[in-house]
Design goal:
alpha+beta, Protein Transport Mog1p, Chain A, 7-stranded antiparallel sheet, 4-stranded antiparallel sheet, 21% strand
Length: 488
Amino acid sequence: MFKRLFLFSILLILLGACSTNPATGEKQFTAFMNTAQEKQIGAEEHRKVLTEYTLYDDKRLQKYVSEIGKKVTANTERPDVQYQFHLLDSPVVNAFALPGGYIYVTRGILALACSEAEVAAVLAHEAGHVTARHSAERYSRSVVTSIGTTILSVAIDSTGVSQALSVGSDLYLKSYSRDQENQADALALRYLNYSGYNMLAMSDFLSRLQAQSALEKKMAGDNKSSDAMNSLFSTHPATAARVNKTRIQAQGLGGANNGAVGRDAYLRVIDGIFYGDSAAQGFIRGNNFVHPELGLMFSVPEDYKLYNSSSQVVAKGKGSSSGSMIIFDLEGNAERASPMRFLRDIWLKGQNVESAEEIIIGGMKATTASIEGNVSGKSTKIQLIAVQWAEDKIARFQVILPSYPTKAQLDALKKATYSFRRMSEADYNIYGPYRIRIITAHSGDNVSSLVKRMAVDEYKEERFRLLNGMSAEEAVKVGGLYKIVARY
């Protein structure tokens, strides 16, 4: 009994340990992460971020982002924070902050933004989360939750109740509460005002973020696991109420007509930035997946839609091929096993597969086998293919067949896996990553003429209007600068 009372007493003391935040003026519970710990944890998590993401290889743009960040954080309420700003090589429109002042934006943010003021708004918002100590608050509350489950387990003599809470970058990448988002918005407007940027850039960018999220969902279709969903919208929801609130707040602070926007100068700075997946990430061109850095490519049937993620490529069947799927990835082969041994002993962990057959794909040794599998609760046949890409790398295909495949469908799927090959010099000349290019609208130009210059395969006009912050009816202006997506 004494032990239980002691634990409850400790919990009550901790719950009373609140401090007043200098930025918000509100009391908050941050007992388990002081400012020194913020710096330490931020530095540790920063190293982890750089193992998961790559910095964008452009020192000029890295410096540009850092300069904007320094402007908006020059007069925050926390002079103890040494802010750092990093541009990540990711097409996903995202931004996040770690304790201690580590702030990250992706090149996807820069491609979507239409002015320097909009980038400043994103950086100022993330700085708002840092000055408001939202990560420290979230972490401290998670510790209390952990203590609470420990107390409960003691009270009922059940160790099963206590659950370990993970502490790491995931804690900082999860969605903030509505109050925390509102606080970060209000602080961002304050910092934009202090640094001389137009505060309406905040609501303008949030509106575009809404449109971006809607287009990504439309393009992703039913692929719930698409990287498109891991966007800024998922961690910082840009609701209509939030857009309106920031606009009203900006107007109240005099932001309707004041402050720098920097549209044309900004567009000239980002001219040439990668759009979509880069050569290092591989990309989709029509029904082809191309990975110039690895030097590989393959094609899928016309009635399949390709999705590229950091770990695998998925092609999902449409129409009569609905339910079928092709999954491709590269797997380490430390034992340098042959494709046959890899498939049987490593991939299938020693299962007896009588149908395994040695074949040649793209001039490389390979093994294929058919197994019975289960997809979404339904029994189905799965064709496995292991290709010896390198001594220590195996290229893997998993082909989930349609329920009642026709000969034409089977032939198309077989052709797809046999299309896997090393890229030739001609392939390198044909396929290249997309880039944002800035063009000037001349007399006689209109939306249709500029859209024709977009190198993307689908949703050309929607993407053009989104990238340029144009409404559905807005026309181009002669002499105006516009973004298009080009091959080089």
